[in-house]
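Can anyone check this?
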Amino acid sequence: PHSDTDTLAFPWVWVNVLAHLSTQLSAQNQDLIEKNLTLQEHLRQAQPGFPSSSDTAQLASELHQELANCLQDLQAVCSIVTQRAQGHDPNLSLLLGIHSSQHPGTPLDLQKPDVIRRKLEEVQQLRHDIEDLRTTMSDRYAQDMGENCVTQ
């Protein structure tokens, strides 16, 4: 048996977790992008006309893979919180962190505009999903508050 306060607090805990993760991921992403740009600029200044070193290319590839993994995890968390906010049981695979292989182990070419564009679209979709989740949570909270007022 759960109290009314538990019912109201549970989804908001997930919203706070999601907001914190989103902020943290955004800050880390910005920091890594700035470091990557700084490294690229140093390479250009040191060796004009030469392609970037294999070490830098490897690091950029690892960076992209980590960001892709973070994106996938944040999408899963967003989905779980949305399911809970709508009163549904969460997808257990997502809850346990079991992912289908959307991002195969092969590294993507970060120099191709279509690859970058596709990743940008995924991030933009995630931002839209987070906004939808906020709306759902606000609606649910308003509904719960309305029901609380009626019962009191």
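Reply from J.R.: I decoded it. The chain has one domain: 4-151.
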